[in-house]
Amino acid sequence: MKTYELIIERRQPSCGGKPPKDVQLRTVTTDDPVAYVRSIEKDGQLQVTSADGEIVISLEIGSKRVKYTFTED
Fold it and tell me: pLDDT tens for residues 32-60?
Protein backbone atom coordinates (compact mmCIF):
# COMPACT_ATOMS: atom_id res chain seq x y z
CA MET A 1 0.00 0.00 0.00
CA LYS A 2 1.05 3.56 -0.64
CA THR A 3 0.85 6.47 1.77
CA TYR A 4 -0.54 9.76 0.51
CA GLU A 5 -0.98 13.26 1.80
CA LEU A 6 -4.62 14.04 1.03
CA ILE A 7 -6.12 17.52 0.72
CA ILE A 8 -9.92 17.64 0.64
CA GLU A 9 -11.51 20.90 -0.56
CA ARG A 10 -15.27 21.21 -0.19
CA ARG A 11 -16.96 24.20 -1.79
CA GLN A 12 -20.45 25.24 -0.77
CA PRO A 13 -22.62 28.30 -1.16
CA SER A 14 -21.75 30.78 1.56
CA CYS A 15 -24.82 31.22 3.67
CA GLY A 16 -25.51 31.55 7.35
CA GLY A 17 -21.96 32.75 7.99
CA LYS A 18 -20.34 29.54 6.71
CA PRO A 19 -17.11 29.97 4.75
CA PRO A 20 -17.42 29.08 1.05
CA LYS A 21 -14.54 26.58 1.25
CA ASP A 22 -13.64 23.93 3.84
CA VAL A 23 -10.14 22.39 3.57
CA GLN A 24 -8.96 19.27 5.40
CA LEU A 25 -5.51 17.67 5.41
CA ARG A 26 -5.09 13.94 6.07
CA THR A 27 -2.53 11.18 5.69
CA VAL A 28 -4.05 8.05 4.17
CA THR A 29 -2.79 4.63 3.14
CA THR A 30 -4.48 3.03 0.13
CA ASP A 31 -3.76 1.07 -3.03
CA ASP A 32 -6.59 2.75 -4.92
CA PRO A 33 -7.32 6.48 -4.39
CA VAL A 34 -10.45 6.28 -6.58
CA ALA A 35 -11.91 3.48 -4.45
CA TYR A 36 -11.02 5.47 -1.32
CA VAL A 37 -12.97 8.50 -2.57
CA ARG A 38 -15.88 6.34 -3.77
CA SER A 39 -16.17 4.90 -0.23
CA ILE A 40 -16.81 8.47 1.00
CA GLU A 41 -18.74 9.94 -1.94
CA LYS A 42 -21.51 7.49 -2.84
CA ASP A 43 -23.23 9.64 -5.49
CA GLY A 44 -22.08 11.42 -8.62
CA GLN A 45 -19.48 10.86 -11.28
CA LEU A 46 -15.81 11.15 -10.35
CA GLN A 47 -13.39 12.95 -12.66
CA VAL A 48 -9.78 11.77 -12.29
CA THR A 49 -6.68 13.60 -13.50
CA SER A 50 -3.03 13.13 -12.68
CA ALA A 51 -0.03 15.38 -13.19
CA ASP A 52 3.30 16.04 -11.50
CA GLY A 53 2.89 13.10 -9.10
CA GLU A 54 -0.55 14.18 -7.92
CA ILE A 55 -3.85 12.40 -8.40
CA VAL A 56 -6.82 14.79 -8.38
CA ILE A 57 -10.32 13.40 -8.05
CA SER A 58 -13.19 15.87 -8.46
CA LEU A 59 -16.90 15.54 -7.90
CA GLU A 60 -19.72 17.99 -8.56
CA ILE A 61 -23.34 17.43 -7.57
CA GLY A 62 -25.56 20.49 -7.85
CA SER A 63 -23.94 23.24 -5.79
CA LYS A 64 -21.67 20.78 -3.97
CA ARG A 65 -18.11 20.60 -5.34
CA VAL A 66 -15.40 18.47 -3.76
CA LYS A 67 -11.78 17.99 -4.82
CA TYR A 68 -9.48 15.29 -3.41
CA THR A 69 -5.77 15.81 -4.12
CA PHE A 70 -3.51 12.82 -3.39
CA THR A 71 0.27 13.37 -3.23
CA GLU A 72 2.42 10.30 -2.60
CA ASP A 73 4.74 10.53 0.41
Answer: 999 999 999 988 889 999 988 899 999 98
The verdict on pTM exceeding 0.90 is: no
Count of C-beta atoms within a 10 Å radius of residue 60: 14
Residues 47 and 58: beta-carbon distance below 8 Å: yes
Could you list the beta-strand ranges (E) of 1-73. Answer: 2-11, 21-30, 47-51, 54-61, 64-72
Contacts of residue 29, Cβ cutoff 8 Å, sequence gap at least 6: 1, 2, 3, 4
Dist CA 47 CA 14 (whole Å): 24
Residue-wise pLDDT tens digits, 13-35: 666 666 788 899 999 999 999 99
